[in-house]
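Narrative summary of target 7.
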Amino acid sequence: MTADEGTVHYERRGKLALIRLDRPGSSNAIDPPTLRALGEAYHRADNDDSVVTVVLHASGPDFSVGLDPQSFLPVLKDRTFSTDGPGIVNPFGTTTRLSKPLVVAVQGQVGAMAHELMLAADIRIAAAGTLFGQGEAGRGTTPAGGGGIRMPLEVGWANAMRWILTGEHWTAEEALRLGLVQEVVAPGEQLPKAIEIAERIASHPPLALRETLRLGRRAWEGHAQHVYADLLPTLHRLLATEDFAERLSALHEGREPVYAGR
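Modeled conformation, tokenized:
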């Protein structure tokens, strides 16, 4: 069973729900309707008792370059954006969260917001040649989807700050070394491997899987829950700073920005 949700496609395959990002013409950049459709797909999978495991993947050469700035900036500045609402499971898992195991397959570019989608998954498979980034700090903002919290929890403080604070990209091999991905496979093999793992997981009792995730997440992320509530307010404050305005002006004028720290 398949469903076309525009830029997000939903497919039932046995006990799996396969959710696919599909904006390949824009390198799967995520605009507000796409993020909402993704949240709706998660909600659909979470509330379907016949689905045991969820697989997230993407069309085209790139998993996703991350946030689509032209479409997202107006709603972020107006403070009208929310990852919550009826019929939605927050794709970043910082408020509501998918209660079923989530396996993600990535390739090409995995930038910022897309990296945060990946960090919200339980198991991650990457194609060789994948490049990752979490570079919001260099653009005058902050990882508002939980990347600045989850990445240090997973790989250690200094290992995470090495990449988050410099804004540099890192490779699939580095991601494997850090433990951000669990396997690196040949290009084109990332989705079959993710499905293989997801099917193995789906052969187990669903309630046992859910409770294992619930307890593990409670222990691992429990102390971070109060910080998640401050993610969007902090982003809103940064979007109103002179430094962020300077970055936009410098981009428009084709020059290097000069930051004043205010």
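The first helix runs from residue 32 to 46.
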